[in-house]
Amino acid sequence: MKTVGIVGLGLMGASFAKALKEKKLCEKIFACDINATVLEKAKNGNIITEGFIPENVDAMLEKCQIVFICLYPGATKKFLDKHKNSFASGAIITDIAGVKSILIDESEKLQSAKLGKAFFIPGHPMAGGEKEGFEYSSANFFNGRNYILLPFADTPPEKLHNFEKLIYDLGFKRIIKTSAKNHDHKIAFTSQLCHVIASGLVQCAEDTNITEFGGGSFEDLTRIAMINAPLWTELFLANKTNLVYHIESFEKSLSQLKNLIETENETDLKNYLQNVREKRIKMI
Amino acid sequence: MKTVGIVGLGLMGASFAKALKEKKLCEKIFACDINATVLEKAKNGNIITEGFIPENVDAMLEKCQIVFICLYPGATKKFLDKHKNSFASGAIITDIAGVKSILIDESEKLQSAKLGKAFFIPGHPMAGGEKEGFEYSSANFFNGRNYILLPFADTPPEKLHNFEKLIYDLGFKRIIKTSAKNHDHKIAFTSQLCHVIASGLVQCAEDTNITEFGGGSFEDLTRIAMINAPLWTELFLANKTNLVYHIESFEKSLSQLKNLIETENETDLKNYLQNVREKRIKMI
Q1: Domains along chain B with CATH numbers
Q2: Hey, are the CB atoms on A200 and B253 less than 8 Å from each other?
C-alpha cells in the first residue's frame, strides 16, 4: 500500500496516522482536518506526509488507495455523499461511525460496496477514550481491541482480505463481521447503554466529593461519563430505538434486583447474584 | 508494635498479613481461620508467625496489640460479642465490614470505644476485587486506596494516632473519618449501588458472546459483577434503606435521560451530558 488518506485528525484519525507511521504500514499518509494547526502539528511531528484543508480534500482522495473517514456519524454520511466520485479507482473507503443504519440502508438489500469507482467497507474500531482530540492519540491506541466490519455481499474478497490484514497490523486483535442492523443492536447495549448508565450515575451523585468514599467501583463505572457530549448526543439519537429497548431491559433487571432487596428475599437475591457472577465469568 | 492478630485469612485479611510482613510493620503476625490448609499455607509461606483455629482464638487475641477482624459483617458482629473480654488490655481492635450501622448503635450516643479492656476503632479499607480468597491477596493490595475510620468520642487520641500511622504504612493514601450513619449512606452509593448496577447490566445481557462487540465500556462497568454472592447479599440487606434510596435516585436520573432520548430533545440531552462530564471531571 502506497498512500493512506485520513479524514479528521481527532483521537481516532490521529491514532490511525500514528499507528500507520510507527508500524511502517504505508509509504505516504495524507490527512484532512478543519483545524490547520492540527495539520501543521502532525506534519511537523512527522506523523503525516501532507495535510489538506477540507476545500482541497478531493485532490487528496484521488491519490489514496485507502481512506479512513474519522468523523462523527452525521458528518461521515455527508462526506460520503459529497465526495463519492472523488475516490481513486479500486480504493477502499472505510469509516469509524458508532452507528451504521444511518449510513447503510435498513434493508441492506439494495446496497452495494460500490462508491463511485471505489469500494466502501464500513467499520467500527472498538476503541475510545474519555480524552478526545489529536493530543491524546497514540500509535498503540488500538492494541488488543475489537474491530467490527460490515462488508457488503459484493465486496471484492481481495479488498476485504487486504483491509483485514491492515486491521491486524494496526494492532487490533479480533475482527467481527456483521450486518448494520445487528451492529446497531449490539452496540446499543455494549457501548451506548453503558454511557447512559455512567452518565445517569454521575448525575445522581449528591456531591463531587463522593470519591472520598470510593474504592474503585464508582470510578470504574463512571470513567466514560467524562463524555464527549456532542458526539454521544448524536450516537444516542441516531440509534434511539435500539438504545431505548436496552435501557428498558436494564430498568427491568434493576427493578427486579431492587425488589429482592426491598422484600429481603435473601435466597433469590443470592441466586440472582450467583447467576450474574457465572454469566460474567463466561464473558471473559 | 509487637504482635498483630488477623481473624480471617481471605483476600483482605491475607493482604493485611502480607503487607505487614513485607513492610516489616510488626514483630509477629498471628492469624485465625476456619480453613486449616490456608493457615498452613500462610505459615509455610512465611507470611504469618503462627496460625490458630477458631477454637483457640482467645489464646491468640490476648497476645495481640492490634487485631484486624476480617470477616463478613454479620460474622464480625458475632465475633465481637463473643470475644470482647478476650482482647489484651489497651489493644486496638478493628474490622473491615462494609456496613457499620449493624455494628454501631444507630444513635451512636450510647457508644464507647471500650471493648472489654481494649478499644474498638471500626474501619473500612476501600479495596476489593472480583477474585476472593487467600490466593489473590497481595502485599500491595492497599496501595493508593482510601480508608474510612469511625472513631468514637472517647477513642484515646494516641490509639487513633498509632492506628492511622499504621494505615498509611500499609500503603493507603487517604483516611476519611466519619459516622456510621454517614458511612452507610455514602457507601450505599459509591459501592453497593455500583454493584447493583453492574449485576443488573450483566443480568440483561442477551448472551455471553456480547463482549465480541465490546470496546471496554461494558467490561469496565461489569467487572465487579463477578460478585461474591453471599457477601454482597449480606451487605445489600444490611444497608437496605440507604441502598434502595440510591437505586431510586439512579432510576430517576436514568428515566430522565431515557426521556430526552425518546423525545429527541437534542439540546437538553447535550446539556445533560455536558453537565455530567464537568461534574465527573471535578471528581478526579
Answers
A1: 3-178 (3.40.50.720), 182-282 (1.10.3660.10)
A2: yes
